[in-house]
Amino acid sequence: MRVVVADDSVLLREGLVRLLDELGTEVVGSYGDADSLLREAQEVRPDLAVLDVRMPPTHRDEGVRAAIELRRILPATRILLLSQYVEVAYARELFSAGSDGVGYLLKDRVTSIDELGSALSRIRDGATVLDPEVVAALLGRRSDPIAALTPREREVLALMAEGRTNSAIGQALFIGTGAVEKNVTSIFQKLGLDDSGSDHRRVLAVLAFLQS
User: Fold this and answer.
1) What's the distance, CA 105 to chain centroid?
2) Per residue of the chain (212 residues), what is the pLDDT tens digit?
3) What's this model's pTM, rounded to 2 decimal places?
């Protein structure tokens, strides 16, 4: 997997590059700002980009803007935002541009190299991976579309947003896979997501409240 990294903190950026090397990925670019990454994107053609949300010059949303532009010029590129903050508006903006292979994790909560490797693998495979705190913030800010869900369904939805399978959700909640499937089906019905045969209905369920 060819990876690029963009973060204005030299220590964090270089530390992340070393971790990615340990995970066996090929780091093909390391940048201190979003513009530098975009200038070389067509040349290095990364499979996945790891970006901070806030970077020069304004330290507001440069990472998100770069991610959206990167997906425009190289649609197959996977995206992982790493931030110190839960930025709900920025997450919404990124997901509205396409949710396949997108992640948003908080730097302080990635506690092991295995955890990072697992997230990268899931994003590479097309999953949406969100930190639980990001999920909680999103659900709290935009709760109307999911007001009809039961507390258990909300728990299942939050774990779906982390990219977990039905089996993994069952293990986390100490319930059977059959019970998880019933909750997932109920979530789809309550959110009005018809069975179109798409593999991305789970992602649409998570993002329905963002687009309402």
Assistant:
1) 7
2) 999 999 999 999 999 999 999 999 999 999 999 999 999 999 999 999 999 998 988 888 889 889 989 989 999 999 999 988 777 777 777 777 666 789 899 988 888 888 899 999 999 998 888 887 777 776 665 545 677 788 898 899 888 877 788 999 999 999 999 999 999 888 888 777 766 554 457 777 766 655 54
3) 0.67
**H helix intervals, the chain:** 10-22, 34-44, 62-73, 88-96, 113-124, 132-141, 151-161, 166-173, 177-190, 201-207
Place of tokens 């930190």: 131
d(CA 12, CA 16): 6
Mapped onto helix, strand or coil, the DSSP state of residue 148 is coil
Select from 185, 121, 182, 190 the least CA-distant residue to 149.
190
**Pairwise CA distance, residues 133 & 135, whole Å:** 5
Distance CA 130, CA 134 (A): 6
Question: How far is it between the farthest Cα atoms of the chain?
Answer: 50
